[in-house]
Design a protein that fits this description.
Strand 3 and strand 4 form a beta hairpin. By secondary structure, the chain is of the alpha+beta class. It is elongated, with a radius of gyration of 32 Å. It has helices spanning about 10-15, 25-35, 65-75, 95-100, 125-130, 140-145, 150-155, 170, 175-195, 195-200, 260-265, 270-275, 330-360, 390-395, 400-415, 420-425, 440-450, 455-465, 475-480, 485-490, and strands at about 40-50, 55-60, 105-115, 115-125, 135-140, 160-165, 210-215, 215, 235-240, 245-250, 275-280, 285-290, 305-310, 370-375, 380-385. The chain has an eight-stranded mixed beta sheet.
Length: about 500
Amino acid sequence: MKSISLPPYAPTLIESTRAIGYTLEAAIADIVDNSISAGAASVDIYFFPIGDSYIAILDDGDGMTAEELELAMRYGSQNPNEKRAANDLGRFGLGLKTASLSQCRTLTVVSKQGNRIEGRRWDIDHVAKEHDWSLLVLDTVEEFADIPRIEELTKLKSGTLVVWQNLDRLMVGEIDFGRSMSKKMDDVRSHLSLVFHRYISGEPGLKRMIIRMNNTPVEPATPFLTNRHTQVMDDEVFEIEGAKVVVTPYILPHFSSLSADELSALGGKDGLRKRQGFYVYRNKRLLIWGTWFRMIPQDELSKLARVRVDIPNELDNLWTLDIKKSKAMPPEEVRNNLDSVIKRLAQLSRNTSVVRGKREARDAIVHIWERSKGRHGGSFYSINRGHPMIELMQEIATPQVKRTLKSLLTAIETGLPLHSLYLDLNSDKPIENDTDTSMQDIAEMLQGMIEQMPNEVAKADLLSRLAVSEPFVNYPQLINQYKPVSRRDIQ
């Protein structure tokens, strides 16, 4: 049997790979991956939407020789099954090209080592014209001088500059490209701050890296609220094919105890729910987040649970990692190890979520509303008939008014807008029921009840009960105004 060489037709394939599905933020993150693999301490991202617009990514990593640069520009330059260095964040040998050309038609890469600068360019229009994998070699002073941000690269001892020009995919359908690009770059900043938060923050065994966008540093966005989370369970460490997978479970504080800045950093109350689940890191770089991989449902009561999963790059094939590094599925052996961990963690999250309701049912305060368990395992809310205000009304009311009061309380309970409350509690906007109630209102309410008491003994009994009842428990100074002065106090 004979064989023939049948290379892909360059213009068709290079256009087809543009449709893999990169977002702008994922594409730029792929370039930053290469900077990390090159040992960079800083990465600068520049975007210029006016005139000859461009996006440039500059790092101070090791740089490349001419041979290394041409290999990096080759499609499929790396075998995904080959073992790589521990800090290598690539896999398929496609990221630089597919990520870049998914956003632009002209990709220029310039790299410096010592006094030597090498430049190569993929120009899709040139490839279409030549009908071949025709890589352009930059070799004149004029060609290098025309490259945006080349002056910053020349100042470095070593490094690499990636430039995207002819940004056709970003311009499609945009009336005001400058405004739309600024908005998209805000999304890029948020994405990088989360995906590379461990590199930006620095941690033991990991080189700290600075990422800047138009000279403004990108701040880390840790999804675990450093110094506020609780690691309620020990790390789980297990081996697969000789490689270690480390699982670290966390429970976030109840959202009522979070500051506005902390809640905002977590994406608001809605973000708490959407971002629960696994956070899968490959060599400390965040790949996947906000999913339970269908192992448990994503619901309100498990929204405080987060599970950090650290995997090495040698297990990429088992996790079915895609080219964009945005999708992965844990192998069965990992799922089996995680199953019991996440079920226990989800229960702890539920306990944290409902602890306030349980505490209200057991504390010494007499609440207006009571929470009880329903017959079918759910919960229901009822007005506390033992509250001093309601008991007083029943005592002074005529039989007809008592019946009307009972009907009114039942109507309030059955008309409780649970659906609206659920939506409001899970939005980012505060519920402001207390804003219209002043201390004067509470004082008038208290005085009206005191005036109903027939003698000092009844008055003292009422005051002692109101002192631990809502809303008066929050106004002890008003209660004290009506307490009789004892001889001991006079002395």
